[in-house]
Write a structure and sequence with these properties.
Elements (H helix, E strand, L loop, with lengths): L1 E3 L1 H4 L6 H8 L5 E3 L7 H8 L3 E6 L5 E3 L12 E8 L2 H10 L1 H4 L3 E3 L21 H14 L7 H19 L27
Parallel strand pairs: 1-2, 1-5, 3-5, 3-6, 4-6
């Protein structure tokens, strides 16, 4: 499930959360800034048959890269991703205490974001579509999700096409330069993006 900030939803040319939603059968995209009273979110959070997790960095995450995620047996897993800039995501979490209180899952980032169109606050930060892809890939590798190679390619294909189209225009970002706000060197610390 993607919880999308209204400002991000209005961005037709860059909305990677919307691209991820359109690429993932069965996903849902909800628009707003406060989700604790949203009827669909409330139903999912209150449903005893669901196991809701927030995909967001932080100190107390179950790290998918290290196999720390443990699904609750017999429950339907629901992964919630916040879609918007990092400041928009923090704003949604401040206003949505029930969502912010969900158990968190995260992962190690092995490569910088391919999304060079938009600057990331830190080298390990990913756009929403990349985060969804990484999450699904790790869940599949651990036997928690089924995803085949064609599904995997289909998820990243829209992002790569968007980047290629943007690269055809003057003023495009350099292909090899990391799009990280305030980056002066290639060194980076392992600091959470949120």
């Amino acid at each position: 499930m993607f919880l999308t900030h209204p400002k991000e939803y209005r961005k037709v040319r860059v909305a990677t959360g919307r691209l991820a939603h359109l690429s993932l059968e069965g996903s849902e995209l909800l628009v707003g800034t406060e989700f604790d009273q949203h009827p669909r979110v409330t139903r999912l959070l209150d449903d005893p048959a669901t196991d809701c997790r927030l995909v967001y960095p932080g100190p107390d995450v179950e790290n998918l890269s290290r196999g720390e995620y443990r699904p609750r047996p017999g429950l339907q897993p629901v992964f919630v991703l916040i879609d918007g800039s990092w400041s928009m995501a923090r704003s949604i979490l401040r206003r949505s205490q029930r969502v912010a209180a969900l158990p968190r899952v995260g992962f190690d980032t092995t490569t910088p974001s391919e999304f060079v169109i938009k600057r990331q606050p830190r080298p390990e930060c990913l756009c929403t579509l990349e985060a969804a892809h990484r999450c699904l890939t790790l869940l599949a590798a651990q036997g928690h999700e089924e995803i085949d190679v064609t599904q995997e390619r289909r998820l990243l294909a829209p992002l790569r096409r968007l980047i290629a189209m943007q690269g055809a225009y003057p003023g495009r970002p350099a292909a090899r330069r990391p799009a990280v706000r305030g980056a002066r060197t290639s060194d980076s610390r392992d600091i959470p993006c949120g």
